[in-house]
Fold:
Amino acid sequence: ETGVTQTPRHLVMGMTNKKSLKCEQHLGHNAMYWYKQSAKKPLELMFVYNFKEQTENNSVPSRFSPECPNSSHLFLHLHTLQPEDSALYLCASSQVWQGTGEQYFGPGTRLTVT
Amino acid sequence: DQQVKQNSPSLSVQEGRISILNCDYTNSMFDYFLWYKKYPAEGPTFLISISSIKDKNEDGRFTVFLNKSAKHLSLHIVPSQPGDSAVYFCAASSEDFGNEKLTFGTGTRLTIIP
Structure:
C-alpha cells in the first residue's frame, strides 16, 4: 500500500448504528486530519492530530469521535448520526512544520445516513 | 464567511487552449496558496503551490499567479489536455503550532473538450 488509504470506501448506516472509519498513511508523516465534504460546500476541517495528540477540534459534534493510536493510523468513530451527516469524509496527512501547507489525501469514505 | 472563494463552479475549454481558474481570498495572513485536483471517487491530489511572498510559480504546463493587492490567485493550464478534466480546489494555508490548516474553496469543475 502507498499513500493514504481509507476503509470502507462506502458506508450506509442507520441513525442508531455505531460504525468506524479507518485511515492509514504510508508516507512517514506525523500529522493527520479528518475533513468533511458536503455537496456544494468547501472541505471542512474536523480534527487535527500531531504526533498522536489532538491539536484541533473544529467544533465537531460529539457524535463524531476521533482516535489516533499512532502517527500512521486515524479512526473516526460514528454513533447516533443524523441524515445531514451524510457526506464524503476525507483523511489527509502531512509533515509537521513542513511550512508549505501540502497535505496528502486518501480517497475518502462516502457515508450515507438513513 | 468564506475566506476562500471560487466563483466559477464550472469551466469548459477546448483541448490545446489555455484554462484559467480563479480564486479570491479575504485573509491576508495566509502563508501559502495551493491548488488541488480531484477526480471522481478519488481524494484531492496536490498540484502546485505558491508562497505568499512570491507572485508566480511554474511547473510544466501549470502556472499559478498571486496578486496580493487584489487578494486573487489564478491557475493557468496550457496547453489544456483531456486528462485535465477534473474538479480544481483552491486552498490557503495558515500555520498554527506546526499544523498546516487548509481553508478550501468550493471547487471549479474543468471540462476539456476534445
User: Anything to note?
Assistant: The radius of gyration of chain B is 14 Å. The mean pLDDT of chain B is 94. The longest strand of chain B covers residues 86-96. The interface with chain A takes residues 2, 4, 31-32, 34, 36, 41-46, 49, 51, 89, 91-93, 95-107 of chain B (CB under 8 Å).
